[in-house]
Structure prediction request, 123 residues.
Amino acid sequence: MDYKTVIKTHQQKIALSVGYLLVAALAFGLGRISALRYEIPDIRVEESSGVPLNNNPISGSVQSANVDNSGSDCAGKIKGNINSKGDKIYHIPGGSFYDRTNPEQCFVTEAEARTAGFRKSSQ
Prediction:
């Protein structure tokens, strides 16, 4: 039997098999690419000095000393912003959107921003 006749008689099966292989390879490749973007956040455990820094008995909450929630000027600091979808994103000085970001929170270090649930801006 000639390979040309084999291809002609089994053309539909060959096309389906090649299609399945291409889809499987594409799905596998995209899965590997998306897995590379996953970042494990740094977790920092600190010992308590015994007395909370901002103890407010009325609200019952304790705020970090390095976080500025005033929403005003964060000159030279990391700006944390929450977009309309509820995504928490932080911007570092020199970033593309740093100057036009109106911050909800300001941070001193990137680790503090990540600990607060923010992710780094892609630009």
